[in-house]
Amino acid sequence: MRKGRSIAWRCWNLRRPSYHAPGTCTFYGTANTNQMVVEFMGMQLPGSSFVHPDAPLREALTAAAARQVTRLTG
Protein backbone atom coordinates (compact mmCIF):
# COMPACT_ATOMS: atom_id res chain seq x y z
CA MET A 1 0.00 0.00 0.00
CA ARG A 2 1.38 3.40 -0.93
CA LYS A 3 2.14 5.83 1.82
CA GLY A 4 -0.26 8.76 2.13
CA ARG A 5 -3.35 7.08 0.64
CA SER A 6 -6.52 7.78 2.57
CA ILE A 7 -8.74 5.07 3.94
CA ALA A 8 -11.60 6.35 1.74
CA TRP A 9 -9.42 5.98 -1.37
CA ARG A 10 -8.44 2.45 -0.38
CA CYS A 11 -12.08 1.52 0.26
CA TRP A 12 -13.11 2.97 -3.11
CA ASN A 13 -10.47 0.88 -4.88
CA LEU A 14 -11.87 -2.22 -3.22
CA ARG A 15 -15.44 -1.39 -4.26
CA ARG A 16 -14.76 0.01 -7.74
CA PRO A 17 -14.58 -3.33 -9.61
CA SER A 18 -18.12 -4.17 -8.49
CA TYR A 19 -19.50 -1.22 -10.48
CA HIS A 20 -19.25 -3.00 -13.82
CA ALA A 21 -21.37 -0.61 -15.90
CA PRO A 22 -23.26 2.67 -15.78
CA GLY A 23 -26.74 2.25 -14.35
CA THR A 24 -25.83 -0.41 -11.83
CA CYS A 25 -25.39 -0.20 -8.12
CA THR A 26 -23.99 -3.48 -6.95
CA PHE A 27 -22.71 -2.04 -3.70
CA TYR A 28 -26.10 -0.99 -2.27
CA GLY A 29 -28.19 -2.78 -4.88
CA THR A 30 -30.66 0.05 -5.39
CA ALA A 31 -30.43 0.36 -9.18
CA ASN A 32 -30.34 -3.41 -9.63
CA THR A 33 -33.34 -3.86 -7.33
CA ASN A 34 -35.30 -1.17 -9.18
CA GLN A 35 -34.62 -2.83 -12.53
CA MET A 36 -35.83 -6.19 -11.27
CA VAL A 37 -38.96 -4.77 -9.58
CA VAL A 38 -39.98 -2.88 -12.72
CA GLU A 39 -39.44 -6.00 -14.82
CA PHE A 40 -41.39 -8.18 -12.38
CA MET A 41 -44.28 -5.69 -12.46
CA GLY A 42 -44.44 -6.00 -16.23
CA MET A 43 -43.40 -2.40 -16.82
CA GLN A 44 -40.22 -3.47 -18.60
CA LEU A 45 -39.69 -6.11 -21.26
CA PRO A 46 -38.89 -9.55 -19.82
CA GLY A 47 -35.17 -10.22 -19.68
CA SER A 48 -34.19 -6.60 -20.26
CA SER A 49 -32.72 -5.85 -16.84
CA PHE A 50 -28.95 -5.52 -16.59
CA VAL A 51 -28.27 -4.93 -20.29
CA HIS A 52 -25.32 -2.54 -20.58
CA PRO A 53 -26.51 0.97 -21.57
CA ASP A 54 -24.04 1.17 -24.46
CA ALA A 55 -24.88 -2.26 -25.91
CA PRO A 56 -26.75 -2.44 -29.22
CA LEU A 57 -29.23 -4.71 -27.45
CA ARG A 58 -30.25 -1.82 -25.15
CA GLU A 59 -31.31 0.31 -28.13
CA ALA A 60 -33.20 -2.65 -29.64
CA LEU A 61 -34.99 -3.27 -26.34
CA THR A 62 -35.94 0.40 -26.08
CA ALA A 63 -37.41 0.32 -29.59
CA ALA A 64 -39.29 -2.91 -28.80
CA ALA A 65 -40.65 -1.40 -25.59
CA ALA A 66 -41.88 1.65 -27.49
CA ARG A 67 -43.65 -0.59 -30.03
CA GLN A 68 -45.24 -2.59 -27.23
CA VAL A 69 -46.50 0.56 -25.50
CA THR A 70 -48.11 1.81 -28.70
CA ARG A 71 -49.73 -1.61 -29.26
CA LEU A 72 -51.16 -1.64 -25.75
CA THR A 73 -52.38 1.95 -25.75
CA GLY A 74 -53.21 2.51 -29.41
Automatic annotation (TrEMBL):
GO terms for molecular function: phosphogluconate dehydratase activity. Keywords: Lyase. Pfam families: ILVD_EDD_N (PF00920). Residues 13-72 form the Dihydroxy-acid/6-phosphogluconate dehydratase N-terminal domain. It comes from the Bacteria. InterPro entries: ILV_EDD_N (IPR000581), IlvD/EDD_N (IPR037237). GO terms for cellular component: cytosol. The keyword Lyase applies. Belongs to the IlvD/Edd family. This is Phosphogluconate dehydratase. It comes from Citrobacter koseri (Citrobacter diversus).
